[in-house]
Please model this.
Amino acid sequence: MHVSRRSFIRGGVSAFTVTLAAPEFLCDLALAQGARSRNLVVLYLAGGNDSLNTVVSYRDPFYYSRRPTIAVPAAQVLQIGTDTGGNALGLHPRLTGLRDIFNQGRLAIIQRSGYANSSRSHFQGADIWGTADPNSPSSMGWLGRYLETLPRDPLSAFTTTRDLPRALMSRQVAVPAIPDARAYSFASPNTGEEAVNERAAATRIASHMPVERPQLAFVNASARAALDTLDRVATFANYTGTLTYPNNGLAQALRTVAGSIVRGLGTRVYWVQTGGFDTHAGEGAQGLGAYATLMSTLNDSVIAFYNDLRNQGLLGDTMILQFSEFSRRISENGSNGTDHGAAGIMMAIGGGVRGGIYGSAPSLDPNPANPTLENSGGDVRYEIDFRSVYARVLEDWFGANAVPILAGDFRAGGPPIV
Amino acid sequence: MGRGQPQTAHVLRRGSFGASASDLKAFERYSAQAVTEYLLNVDRQPDDVDSNIQQSAYVSVTTRSGQFQPNVNIDDARQRWLFRMVHTARPLQEKMALFWHNHFATAYSKLAGVVPGVQATKMLALVEGELPGPRGQLELFRQMGLGSFRDMLIEVARDPAMLVWLDGRLNFRARPQENFGREVMELFTFGLGNYVEQDVYTAARVFTGWNLRLAGGTDAQLPTTYYEFFYNPAQHETSAKTFTFPIYADGGTTIPARSAADGMQDGLDFLAALARHPETARRLARKLWNFFVSEVNPPADEFVETAARIYLQYDTQIKPVITYILQSSAFLDSANWYTRYSWPAEFVVRAIKEVGWNGFTVDTARAAMINMGQTLFEPPDVAGWSLGQEWFSSGAMLARMNFAATLAANQRVNLARDAAVAKSSPDDFVSYFIDRLTASEFDSVPYGYLQGYVSTGAAWTGSTAQLQAKAAGLTRLIVGSSEYQFI
Model:
């Protein structure tokens, strides 16, 4: 059995080794796309981020009256100015790095983003954000549909989570899940030629796509997605960066993403996420406590990634897009937490991002007639359709046609973040 | 050794975790129906599997600092559960415990962020009587998993692990806490579409005062102290509570105002209503179809309606429903064989049972399962694991392939010795492993690749070294194949 092998050496780094697992044109494709291709890093805050404490409308008296314990004191917020509605805003005190990025004009804050009749279910909410379809959130993902428009490359996207998020699901593209790049390698009970033969056989077996057993074809496609990307993933598995990344899951995932960007493998979409945002209890007080810890993790991870790319002149190629499945109720509950709510904030960060504050903060006046709230004044009502933000990313960042991808024209009203 | 009667093997993959050589021998003369009877009559089999831990002839566990402490160390609790899955005489009990663990998904990491790890492990895995305190959540599922769903739901609502996981311990009168009240409707019973946002607010009020307290001492770091449920009347909100769906058999939708002392009845009434709601019955019927019959072929409406009717007719008892399912023609239909995507726990246990365990530790499986996406006692969120296709991200599939490699390498000597009966030719050798490792059918093309693998390299001699290399390689290819990932 003959295994064709070909190695590429580029910039002193072995870019990747190709076996028969990957057609050779992919090598050229990856090189052609190269380090200069634009990429998107989705940063998903799982659990429903309490965005009223992320970006604080610190002159709204109702913010303090409805959150007597968990409100961030006005004196602590990192002031970033006022929005078009005249609301003075400040970042959570732990977001010092994001404040710096904001001051550099590279952080866009999109307020009150969401959709009508917001789901308060984590799972339905996550599916709606993943599919960009509030009416039928069980279809394929919006980014999966974008990937289908690109030349086929098994590494055109990857997630750093164990499960593939719905946003990256596609009927045509098997997106790799690489939760731990160092463990993303092929193990064999044998060594030497026997192991090589075994890998070749595994690849051939996984290449079988029986039409009458689609479930088997699906799993084979996943196996192929692994086998076809192993060698390229190995080129950045041990990437450490130009600085020390914090020792938390989010930062380590971003380090892996940075490694992939620096190696220039042509990956266009990355998914990273961090959890713990389902803060029903014990959010903390005085800008301290559990929510402050979440903010520190977010801030320290993002600033490390941002600076690492900046140090290597790659910031202009990357956009981070942050969101969560919903925000939380305005009033705190009796256990110093907040329950499931509605519209929240999105953020975009990157060298190509037009920073600033988009949209206006809600008034937190619980009067049921308050048009910026819903659910009898209990939750924040959306103002900016999240799909209009997706449309901006697809069109202005990726140069794609957002209309077929989002199955509708949501471009109007999208904040000009690029 | 072989895979046994095909229908019997199917029953054992679904109602158990596959069959070891000794299982096959034990069931040699059983019809599929008799195996089903055996599985269902859980109480007729001994409940002594734990006594075999650390005995030779069984899969090993790995001790830390010389001790195996499954009641207070979460990794040891994981090992104990995997051990049970491999060796239990009551496999359906473990299978249902796994099902309910996913249904009432509760994660250790949040618990351990609130209470010491010792207590968090006890909350999830304590075997009653081995240390002071109430049984762990897993034992609740093992004891009640085939009984009344209503009774189990009530026990779950009072379960210390759940009271931490969904914050019930902090549900107080003045500003109720919605976490449990929402999820008990959305995920544990009838599901989205059967309630409105106002019902979430009201359900939160129902459970005010269902709190938790430390007992048996004051130092939670000690394994002798424990947390227990307590109903705190002073924190119960006593006014009447009206829902948009019936709470009482007469159709009444309002839980009456009660004294604080009697207020716990609010929750019992509410949970009983959820348990007997027809949409809960249907939702459980669909989940059980996917678990036992097929994830590829959807259930007929008639199946769902019949299973739901039995559930309601038998006052929410689960065993009659499972009996109906396992005896249904749909379950036995060969069109539904191998149409269930195995969970990582099912995959590793079946592989161990079929490949062998002499000299293997379940701790290796426990560690490998992390990258397969299933750490026991650590579901990703309250909705449980994403099942079906979603188990099979590329990284997770790679982890399964690599586990197959680890197990095959560990068992190479035993495998080669067993397969020596088939050493006359590479094709016989492949046949032997295809028979022993019960993957779904390989089409002729991939089957040819298996044969090609064995024939590649040095000429076939059947030497011990060659048998060991090829036995391990072939086992790895089969157990790591997509064909093997279905049960």
